[in-house]
Amino acid sequence: MKTMALLMTAAGLSAYLGSCSPGELDFSQYPSAEISNEEVKMKIYLPDAEKGLYRATRFDWSGVIGSVQYKGHEYFGYWKSTHDPMFHEDLSGPVEGYIEPGLGYSEAEPGGKFVRIGVGVIEKADEAEYNWRETYKIVDHGKWQIDQGKDWITFSHEVETDVGYAYVYEKTIRLKEDGFVIAHSLKNTGSKRIETDQFNHNFFMIDGERSGTAFKISFPYEISTADDPKGMLLIKDKEITFLRDLVDDDAVFVALAGYGTEVDDHKVTVLNQKSGAGVSYQINKPLYRMVFWSCATTLSPENFIWLSVEPGAEETWNSEYTLFVK
Which end of the chain is more exposed for a tag (fewer CB within 10 A), N or C? Predict the structure, then answer.
């Protein structure tokens, strides 16, 4: 895990530089669904191996949120001026992933199989190490099922392999009066233990405000970092603020320390102080890792948990987002 963290700190920034510029793109050709209640309206892009908005291998294909509207405010959106369904970062909203190379990657020979949860069975390339920015060949997409009601949607993904890894993964997004809950379950139906971290990139874009002095990001613990905020961030006490508004070529990435093993530490609040719109989200599992990444168009407090699921066992966890307007 330490190796992956270093890759994201150094190489990750260069992968993002120059990509953060606003643009108007037509996504009407991509399969999507809408759910709503009296207060919240959400647009979600659907997993589809042939026509989906996102068909790369970094992120979980389920629950890609394109828009959340609440009391006249917008919380998400597409943060780039270009789009390629096969490019690792070209998606929007709270998007989740399993950042470890994948189940069985280290055991597989080049041309062999490994598994990315929420993606499918992947062919291992002839490479020295896994590249999280690369889109790999998917040899089996698994079986997707989608069920939907007025204010909820459920994605179910079933994957079986001949290399010992198999699962049934379910994600339900359900609206509440002031936000939404993402409920997860991961059942290990294979013969090998599933061990992986899971994270959410978030990609907040509150009211389309440029990342900068309008925003305040708050935590329930004293935060610190050993990384260089490059003159863009002030990390002090329990808050991250921006020292200036970011321009199109800016990007900053820092790993955050200070959290403990308590579930109550797993909470983040993002506030657009200019429009008054904000969001708090929390997960009912302890933090495994916490980082913060931002470019000019979006900001992403990225929260990680650790999962260890024995054969025949099932793990569940919830992510709850509460929207507010000051």
Answer: C
